[in-house]
Amino acid sequence: MVYGATLLITGGLALTQNYVGWLREYVLAIVAAVFLYLPLEVLHKKGIDPALFGIHAKPLWRSIRQALIISLFVFPPYLLGFHFWQTHWLKNKPAVAEARFDQWPIDVQDAPKLRQLKLGEVRLHTNRDLVWLHWHLPPGQTFETSIESTPPIKEYVGRKSAKQGDTTVYRGRSDGRIAFQASGETLKLDIQAGGDRLPAERLRVGTTLKSASDMPYTIHRSYWWIFNLIIFQFLLVALPEEVFYRGYLQSRLDQVFTKETKVFGVSVSIMSLVVTSALFAIGHYITVPSVHRLAVFFPSLLFGWMRRASGGILAPLIFHALCNLFVEFAALHYH
Predict the structure, then answer these.
(1) 131 - beta bridge partners?
(2) Residue 30 belongs to what domain range?
(3) Which of 277, 288, 316, 323 is the most exposed place for a label (fewest CB within 10 A)?
(4) Count of CB atoms situated within 10 Å of the CB of 70
């Protein structure tokens, strides 16, 4: 019942955020709160100490050491598989020399899930090394933007532009889009609609479609996204998922599937590991319906083994976050 409740809530939020603008900004925090609150509330109602379900931070140093040692064994062969997946499945090419660790602010990253633009709206988002501009103006209005960047931008979509030093000027009709690569550290856009400067609130940025703070709109590359990513992966992804799946759910299933087998010296319930991992994969698919999301079944088996080997969720929590960070940084080296 608890697992079904998480599917209903997270799946509902994933669908609703496409239609409720303000929800997109808070959906990840809400999902994390659901995964933390539901199991802990059930245990509290039943008078059960969460520590009996492995929901504690002990042993601290042994858990850290276990996560790091397993990372040393797992990441090298995983990198080979990741390379094959990037080059043969996704048809990407290695681009080690082009990898950048300074990126645009997280507020402007990734395309919004809501595809339909409102009348008079302009959208800006980044997708890895590309910057996208979409607009939908009233019929008859012209669109114009001057894009200042050093060195000048390199266009990918949209050809009607003129360069004036480090500034590229683009003019278009009432509907359209352009994509360009900006390799400099700063990007400044001044947008006009129908001959007048676009009000800042009509420029929506990133996946959450937040209104721009001012016009002209300026963004800067920085390394802060790395800090944000680490905090995000540990506190909003690994922590709630490990509390729920390896702490609460696996412990409950251990009580159902009591037959245990030694795996690398650790007594585990194979059925509990498999069922927990299957439910883990389904939960990921519900929020983002993609067959690739089902692949989390396999690392989940290792997370579950670590839960039993260490006696708590801290070791799989650390390893879980390190896996996600490893994928994020590895992906920067392909294009």
Answers:
(1) 126, 180
(2) 2-94+225-331
(3) 288
(4) 20
75-84 burial: b if 16+ Cβ within 10 Å, else e: eeebeeebee
Residue 100 lies in a domain: no
Whether residue 86 contacts residue 79, with contact meaning beta carbons closer than 8 Å, is answered with no
Neighbours of 25 (CB within 10 A): 15
Contacts of 240 (CB under 8 A, 6+ apart): 31, 32, 33, 34, 35, 36
Domain boundary among 164, 192, 221: 221
CA atoms within 13 A on the CB side of 122: 28
Q: How confident is the chain (335 residues) per 10-residue block, as mean pLDDT? A: 94 81 80 95 96 93 95 96 91 86 88 85 90 94 92 75 82 91 92 94 91 94 92 96 97 96 96 97 92 94 97 97 95 88
Closest-CA residue to 325 (of 200, 259, 237, 219): 237
User: Any idea what DSSP says for residue 217?
Assistant: E
**3-class secondary-structure state, position 80:** helix
